[in-house]
Each structure stands twice: as structure tokens, then as C-alpha cells.
Amino acid sequence: MVHSGPSPPNPQLTQQFLSSVLSQRGPSSLPYAEDTKWQIRQHLLALATAYPSLEPKTASFTHNDGRTVNLLQADGTIPMPFQGVTYNIPVVIWLMESYPRHPPCVYVNPTRDMVIKRPHPHVNPSGLVSAPYLHNWVYPSSNLVDLVRNLSLVFARDPPLYSQRRPTTPAPPSPSPSPGQGFGLTPTLNSSLGSGNYAPRPAIPPRAYPPSPYGAVPTGGASQRIQTEDPSEVYKRNAVNKLIETVHGDMAALRKAREGEMEGLFNAQAVLRQREEVLSRGVKEMQDEKEALEQQLQMVLMNSDVLDAWLRENAGKKPGSLEAEDAFECTDALSKQMLDCTAADLAIEDVIYSMDKAAQEGAIPFDQYLRSVRLLSREQFFQRATGIKVRAVQMQAQVASMAARAPHYVS
């Protein structure tokens, strides 16, 4: 049994190619995370070693939203054992921007002489593969070698491609099972008992939906591409694709409008917060000023009451009918005691001053001067101490009186 296919790539050239493209910086660099580029390189090297038919390349991939990015891919064939014969399934494994944290995107890449089996549990009509290994991808244990090995087993249970015989060309001998034993068509290309005269052909152009990343390859000559799709299916996919594009455009316009509204609301919120802070500071200042004015008002009202009471008591008195000492009267015992202490203190101070003058002039003996000053100083000390105590009691009484009057003035 002879397996036809591409010649194995040079491992050294593959290693140099991967090192070059993954080390590029700037706009031409590949869109992979820097901390995963070394792991991507190791995955592709291991895949090229285990499956030489899969060659690492770079190509442009178009997303569903129209974005085009330059990505790495493994392009070639996967060996598939089927009923004792090994066949080669052409595939393209795209390493997306989030690889290896997320699984790659695998497409079956049929030639013009192949058709995708419909329906197939793991391959949709556009060639997109959804194998269990891709759904159960776990980073960092999952890798490309295990993926290809799993795809080989999955395709062996249910081949995704069938060869399409040309009516004008006799079919070459093949070790494939007879139509009565299994499927109506031979599983796929590239396996024959001859010298490999059935070479692989270029990939088919991308279908309408879902989009395939392969570009159309000219076939040359007068050979025409055989139509293998149902027109109703093509119309349905085109309609769905058009509907999706319309909805996507409406959503983008709606999102842009809502983002503009949200930006305006955020700006208004920031302005309102600034004004709130200014108003809060102004209210606090006015409250402090109000408290200060209320205190001043209480003091004015208290002084007014005192003056009114004095005026009422002295309203009927004539200015010349009172002596200077009788003009002021003490309102209570503490005031009278304070007045007596202050008068005695000042009188003793005057006596001591007069005795100092008499002693200097020699009017009184010096020893008599000393005895008199000692007695007067003692008396002056007691008068001052009494005055201090009376002052403290008066302050306490004044505070109690203000506290009692405060509710009256506030109301």
C-alpha cells in the first residue's frame, strides 16, 4: 500500500520559520500573547514531527465581523484508517488569537474531486469541524498532536469526505471497500495501489456562511468546478448571512448611539457632583454663621435686660440728688463683698505707698515702718484671696444664669 502526499518538510527549516514569524514585532507581528508564543512554537514543532504531512504556515483569516488578521495554520492532510486502508483527509488547522488558552479552528479542505458528507455529526457543510476534543479543550494540557490523533479516530468512525468520480474518466484501481460493504462513494483521495498518479488538487473556494478562511485557487485549463451544493441551501445561507449582517449593522448603530448617550449622562453626573460639593460647603458655612449670630444675639438680649432693669430702677431719680458713692449699688451679697475687698486692697496699697515716702524722708522710725508694712501686707493678701474666691463664685453663677435664659432667647 502506497500513501501519496506532500514530502516531509525539513525540521530545521520549520524551526527557523516559526522562530522568525513569532519573534517579529510591530504592525507585522502575529496577534498572539507574548507569554504563549514559545508554547505555540513547541506545539507546531511537535505536530510537524509527529505528522509531517501538516506544514506550519501563515495566512490571512477573515472573521465573521469582517476583520482580517494574519494567523498561523497547519495545512496538509490527516491520516485516517478505514476498513484496513489508510486515507488522507485534507484539513487546515487555524491557530486563533487566543490560542492555546482556547482551541484552534479546524476546517476540512476538500479538493474539487471531493464532497463533504451530509449530514455529518462533526463537520458542517462549510467544512468547520466540531470534534469532542475541541469542545473539551483544557489549557495547558491540550495540544495539537493529541487533537490530530483524536480527529483521525473520529474521521475513521465516520469519514467526512467522499471522492467524486468523473463520468468521462475511468476510475483508477483502488483498494477501497466495495459500495455494497459500506458507503456509496470512496472515503477520500490520495490512496492508491499505483505510483501516486492521483495528486491532490487545490482547495475549493470559501462558501457563503459560515465564512471559510481559504481563498479561491484557479484550476486552469478548461476544467470546470462541479456544483455540489443544493441551490436552496445556498439561498438559505445567503439569506441568513444577509439577515445577520443587517442585524449586526443595526446593533452597531444602536450601540454607538447608546454609548454617546451614556457619555453625556456621565458628564452630567460629574458636573452635578461638583455642584453638590459646592452647595454642601455653602450650607455648612451658613450653618456656622447662624450659630455665631445666635450666640451674639443671646449676649445682646442679656445685656439689654440688664440695662432695662437699671433704667427702670433709676427712672425717677434726679442726677444731682445722689453722691458718687451712692450712684452704684450692689445687686447681691457677692457683689458687695467683691466691692469691699477691692476697696480694702486699693486702700492698703495707698497706705503702703505713703509709708514708703515717710520712711524715705525720715518722718517715721525704720523699725516702726517694717512692723506696719508687715501687718498691712498680711491684710492685703487676705483681701486679694477673698476677692479671687468671690470672682470664681460669681462666674459660676453667671454661667448658670445664662444657661437658664438660653431657651427663652432661642424661642
Describe this structure in words.
By secondary structure, the protein is an alpha+beta fold. Helices cover 49% and strands 12% of the residues. The strands form three sheets. Strands 2-3-4-5 form a four-stranded antiparallel sheet. Strands 1-8 form a two-stranded antiparallel sheet. Strands 6-7 form a two-stranded antiparallel ribbon. Helix 1 runs antiparallel to helix 2 (37-50) and helix 5 crosses helix 7. The chain is rod-shaped, with a radius of gyration of 55 Å. Residues 1-7 and 173-227 have low confidence and may be disordered.
Topology:
Layout: E1 2-3, H1 11-22, H2 37-50, E2 54-62, E3 68-82, E4 85-95, E5 105-108, E6 114-116, H3 132-135, H4 144-157, E7 161-163, E8 191-192, H5 231-313, H6 333-361, H7 366-410
Antiparallel strand pairs: 1-8, 2-3, 3-4, 4-5, 6-7
Helix pairs in contact: 1-2, 5-7, 6-7
List keywords for this structure.
411 residues; alpha+beta; four-stranded antiparallel beta sheet; two-stranded antiparallel ribbon; 49% helix; 12% strand; rod-shaped; disordered N terminus
Question: Number of DSSP strands?
Answer: 8
| Multimeric organization | single chain
List unreliable stretches of 5+ residues: 1-7, 173-227
Strand portion: 5-15%
Class of secondary structure makeup:
alpha+beta
Note the total helix count. Answer: 7
Order of strands across the main sheet:
2-3-4-5
Q: What about the largest sheet?
A: 4 strands, antiparallel
Mean pLDDT score: 79
Rg result? 55 Å
What is the terminal-to-terminal distance?
A: 114 Å
* String of helices and strands: EHHEEEEEHHEEHHH
What share of the residues lie within helices? Answer: 40-55%
Taken from the alpha-carbon principal axes, the silhouette is rod-shaped
